[in-house]
Amino acid sequence: MIHPTRTNLLLIREKALSVNNSIRILKARKQALTREFLETTRPFLRSREEIRARYGKALAGLALSLGHEGREGIGSIVAAAARDFRIDITEKGIWGLKYMEISSHDSPVRDPAGRGYDYLPTTTHLDDCILQFEKILESMIELAAFEGKLKRLGDEILKTTRRVRVLEERILPGLTLQIRAISEHIGEREREAFCRLKHFKGRRSSSG
After folding, report:
1. What CA–CA distance (Å, rounded) separates 104 from 102?
2. Inter-residue contact 176 to 17 (CB < 8 Å)
3. Which of 107, 122, 198, 207 is least enclosed, having the fewest CB within 10 Å?
4. Angle at which helices 6-81 and 124-166 pack, to 10 degrees?
5. pLDDT digits over 145-172, tens only?
6. Residues 16-34: pLDDT tens digits?
7. 23 three-class SS
8. Count of Cβ atoms closer than 10 Å to residue 97 Cβ
9. Phi/psi at 11 (nearest 5 deg)?
10. Residue 192: exposed, middle, or buried by beta-carbon count in 10 A (0-12, 13-18, 19+)?
11. Do residues 133 and 176 make contact, with C-beta atoms less than 8 angstroms apart?
12. Do residues 40 and 150 touch, judged by C-beta distance below 8 A?
């Protein structure tokens, strides 16, 4: 039990005010992070659906292309179209939360003339198949960026929620009880002092 003095009462009240301010700031931070989480979730879900749809279409196009071009023809085209592909990773932040954002250095989707092979004699099935796979790569890069960001946001939202709960359910109630106990003790002590003073004055009046 803290010594029940007015000085300690003022100190605990200041601490309770500080805790309330911390709760308000943490709740605002949680709200901002949750809003960012929801905004990031929408394109994340769209990207997953796009990859699933494009993958089925790309596999169907690849099967048709193999029938027309043959495995050797497809193999030589793949070798001619191969390229170094760079990924850029940059650090970003929101409300003090750091996360890594992934982006492609060059666009995954190329013009047919820029793929490194003679596309004029090939079938439209092959061209469309390659386009679908390039778009799948583009969507997977976006998906990787979303997954990293969502994980960091989700972890931080949970951590902030726990901090708010500890402050609201443990720290603040404890301070409130201390404030009440010290206030009651000081009030009782003042009432006793007032009664003694009144009794003393009464005795002086009667003796005079």
Report:
1. 7
2. no
3. 207
4. 170
5. 788 888 889 999 999 999 999 999 999 9
6. 999 999 999 999 999 999 9
7. helix
8. 19
9. -65, -45
10. exposed
11. no
12. yes
Cβ 72 vs Cβ 80: under 8 Å: no
pLDDT at residue 73 above 80? Answer: yes
Q: How far apart are CA 117 and CA 106, in angstroms?
A: 19
* Domains observed in the chain: 6-202 (1.10.287.3240)
Cα distance between residue 58 and residue 127, in whole Å: 10
How many CB atoms lie under 10 A from the CB of residue 77? Answer: 20
Q: What average pLDDT is seen over the chain?
A: 84
Closest by alpha carbon to 33, among 147, 151, 169?
Answer: 151
CB proximity list for 109: less than 8 A, separation 6 or greater: 131, 134, 135, 138
8 A C-beta contact, residue 136 and residue 51: yes
| Residue 205 pLDDT | 63
Cα gap 103→46, rounded to integer Å: 17
Contact 186, 4 (CB under 8 A): yes
128 neighbors 109 (Cβ within 8 angstroms): no
Is the separation of the CB atoms in 65 and 160 below 8 Å?
Answer: no
Question: What's the whole-model pTM score?
Answer: 0.65
The answer to whether 103 and 87 have CB atoms below 8 angstroms apart is: yes
